[in-house]
Amino acid sequence: MSTKPKTEAKVPVLKGQEAEDAVLDYVKKMNRPYGAVDVAANLKGAVPKTAVQKILVSLAEKGDLVQKIYGKTTFFVANQANMEDMPTEKLASLESEHKSIEESNKALLADVKAVTTELTKVKNTPTDSELANQLEDTVKAVEKAIARLEPLRSGSTLVTAEDLAALDSEWTKWRAEWVRRKKIFNTFWSLATDALPPQDSAALAEDLGIEFDTSEHTALEKGPLCAPKSTVLGKRRR
């Protein structure tokens, strides 16, 4: 069943002296420049815009307000000569109260920061069920590792000579293919970037998504695994 949207209660429209008092009280209370449109809007329609304009001009003529004109815009502000002076004692009291509130706010902010930090730690801490799952996974991983170590402890050979030879053959085959393709790429890349400064060449490679060898690749190529006469996977190359 649909419900009708609630409508805001209508503000009674003021007239005559009540309207004038409402406008004057508002401008004096806020004690800042306002135009007729702003005053009418802030009074929530209690005094129509047209009436507000006339009242503001009338109050300015009486000396209750001061009228300021900037170009085509007119502002009205409470006549400061009619405003009550703030006693020195009250002003000092307000300043002291303001300072006390500021210190209180600082203490509250520090408390909020500490509580927020603690809340973050709590949220990042695994729950009991999550810890149980992690512990179970860890136990399974340990058992799997121990099971793989058992043949080594008993002296069994895990990889036969035939398997090593097959792996060595695959390694030799695919590394040779990698070396061939790398050489082709380097040749074409040198031709394409020969006239470019190093900085532009690097930028072009980044734009194209080209990934060059990392330090790990370089270390591998210089290592014993890629040396011409080194032992590869348990078998000496010939």
From TrEMBL:
Q: Does the keyword Nucleus apply?
A: yes
GO BP annotation list: homologous chromosome pairing at meiosis; meiotic joint molecule formation; meiotic strand invasion involved in reciprocal meiotic recombination
* MF (Gene Ontology): double-stranded DNA binding; recombinase activator activity
Q: Which domain of life is it from?
A: Eukaryota
Q: Which GO terms describe its cellular component?
A: condensed nuclear chromosome; DNA recombinase auxiliary factor complex
User: Where does the UniProt entry say this protein principally localizes?
Assistant: nucleus
Q: Which UniProt keywords apply?
A: DNA recombination, Meiosis, Nucleus
Which named protein is this? Homologous-pairing protein 2 winged helix domain-containing protein
**Places the protein is found:** Nucleus
Would the keyword Nucleus turn up in this protein's UniProt record? yes
Residues in Homologous-pairing protein 2 winged helix domain copies: 18-79
Family membership: Belongs to the HOP2 family.
Q: What is the species of this protein?
A: Cerrena zonata
